[in-house]
């Protein structure tokens, strides 16, 4: 059963694929109007085609969240399209897996700009609109890598660790405005990001088998499993959940 988002307006970054797209669809199922943003127009148009049954309740805009000005524009687009903003889901993210000594400054900057700066500034520009709406919900997508360190993943871990603590900090700051901030920390999920991770290995099935072996549940996650938690946190049913860090990782971070 979908949570009720009747009369709500949501902005979902990274909403054209993976966890973001699954979240956008669940928000629409609950009656929300949703602006999805992404950096690739073709992926965005494909997402709109998948969501065509929701007609004018869903829109797409090309936005590069690594640029603070475009984060501001994303919020403006949501308000221009639908009149207000009630929910922000920051799902846009990039991944890198490299030894520390091999990471270039350009690679570091790109991961930090998309993952950290994008989340930070989209939140910054969304807050005044959420206040105008009388409050709302922000859900930031962190990672198991934002809780525990991972091998050859220092840059990604640094970015997601920042999102986890940033979410806790602004949760304290914004709850007086009736804005609840929480974050989710998924493990490996079957999304285009995981497919990209597997693209550069010689034996994909063997590599995936090694990934799965560390999960107590015995498999990687599905995008809709994470989206269900995001939608709960965005809903009024989570009215007493503030500053939480929700692991959605099949038991990975229990170790």
Can you offer a commentary on this structure?
By secondary structure, this protein is of the alpha/beta class. It has one domain (9-243): NAD(P)-binding Rossmann-like Domain (Rossmann fold). It contains eight helices and seven strands, in the order E-H-E-H-E-H-E-H-E-H-E-H-H-H-E. It has helices spanning 18-29, 41-50, 68-82, 105-132, 154-174, 192-199, 204-213, 223-234, and strands at 9-13, 33-38, 58-62, 87-90, 136-141, 179-186, 245-248. It has a seven-stranded parallel sheet with strand order 3-2-1-4-5-6-7, with helices on both faces. Strand 5 (136-141), helix 5 and strand 6 form a beta-alpha-beta unit. Helix 1 (18-29) crosses helix 8 (223-234) and helix 4 (105-132) packs parallel to helix 5. The protein is globular. The relative contact order is 0.15. The model has no long low-confidence stretch (mean pLDDT 94).
Helix-strand makeup class: alpha/beta
CATH topology (fold) name: Rossmann fold
Largest sheet: 7 strands, parallel
Order of neighbouring strands in the sheet with most strands: 3-2-1-4-5-6-7
CATH class: Alpha Beta
Overall residue-averaged pLDDT value:
94
Number of domains: 1
The appropriate CATH architecture is 3-Layer(aba) Sandwich
Distance between the termini: 32 Å
In a nutshell, what does this entry contain?
This protein is an alpha/beta fold. Helices cover 45% and strands 15% of the residues. It has a 7-stranded parallel sheet with strand order 3-2-1-4-5-6-7, with helices on both faces.
């Amino acid at each position: 059963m979908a949570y009720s988002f009747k009369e709500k307006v949501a902005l979902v970054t990274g909403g054209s694929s993976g966890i973001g797209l699954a979240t956008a669809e669940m928000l629409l199922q609950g009656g929300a109007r949703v602006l999805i943003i992404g950096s690739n127009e073709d992926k965005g148009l494909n997402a709109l085609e998948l969501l065509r049954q929701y007609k004018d309740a869903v829109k797409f805009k090309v936005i590069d969240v690594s640029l603070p000005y475009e984060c501001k524009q994303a919020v403006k687009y949501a308000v221009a399209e639908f009149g207000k903003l009630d929910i922000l889901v920051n799902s846009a993210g990039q991944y890198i897996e490299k030894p520390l000594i091999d990471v270039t400054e350009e690679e570091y900057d790109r991961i930090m700009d998309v993952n950290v700066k994008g989340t930070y500034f989209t939140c910054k520009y969304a807050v005044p609109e959420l206040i105008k709406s009388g409050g709302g919900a922000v859900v930031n997508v962190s990672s198991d890598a934002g809780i525990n360190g991972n091998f050859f993943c220092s840059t990604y871990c640094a970015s997601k660790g920042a999102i986890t603590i940033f979410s806790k900090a602004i949760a304290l700051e914004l709850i007086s405005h009736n804005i609840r901030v929480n974050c989710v920390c998924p493990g490996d999920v079957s999304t285009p990001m995981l497919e990209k991770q597997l693209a550069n290995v010689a034996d994909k099935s063997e590599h995936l088998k090694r990934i799965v072996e560390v999960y107590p549940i015995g498999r990687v996650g599905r995008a809709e499993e994470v989206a269900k938690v995001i939608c709960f946190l965005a809903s009024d049913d989570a009215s007493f959940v503030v500053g939480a860090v929700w692991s959605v990782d099949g038991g990975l971070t229990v170790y």
